[in-house]
Amino acid sequence: MKIKVCGLRDAENIKAVAALGSDYIGLIRYDLSPRYVNNLDDAGLNDIPETILKTGVFVNESAEKIQQLIDEYGLNAIQLHGNESADFAAAFKNKVVVLKAFGVGESFDFKQLENYAGSVDFFLFDTKTAAHGGSGQSFNWDILNDYHLDVPFFLSGGLSIDNLHEIASIKHPQFYGVDLNSRFETSPGMKDIEKLKKAFAIVKQYTTNEIRS
Ligand SMILES: O=C(O)c1ccccc1NCC(=O)[C@H](O)[C@H](O)COP(=O)(O)O
To answer: Could you tell me which residue ranges the N-(5'phosphoribosyl) anthranilate isomerase (PRAI) domain spans (predicted)?
Structure first.
């Protein structure tokens, strides 16, 4: 089970998250988010191990701007959180890892994902919110039983120390990773390392059990 810690922006805080063994770190390039990183120089990306995927998170950003940031900061992955089309995503596939986020409400039509299947590496299922992300609220994970494509997915939306144990109830073969954000913060964009340490232990435990069963 992979772990992505999202909404980071401070170099020292990012180093501490990297030391925990995060597989992905998310840097939000959406200026309406309280976790917006205006200047990626502040994130100290040169100091983190190459094994960690530096993920730019975008909401309806232009392809040119995304490409510029990939080139300038060596982003390894992009997460598209707006209304980006499958063709838009496909233009980046095989250059960087592409995650396409979808907001899940009380119901969700997984048919709309069929078009994206060959154009992305992962889906990220988040809680539907007008803010596009970072709601701190979880959705009803039972809905995932209706997902039948073979693209692996990250579970996102309101994951916290209180509900992370419950990922064990998700038996889906494409369940690939978890995305941790606002429930692990001391303030927007600053992660609580002690809380994350506990979360990593829970996910590790889940992964060990998964391998055994
Ligand atoms: O976190 C934000 O502020 C945000 C705003 C706009 C688009 C995406 C955003 N976050 C992207 C993520 O991957 C978050 O981790 C995801 O939305 C879940 O956040 P949370 O519910 O706070 O755990």
So the answer is: 4-200
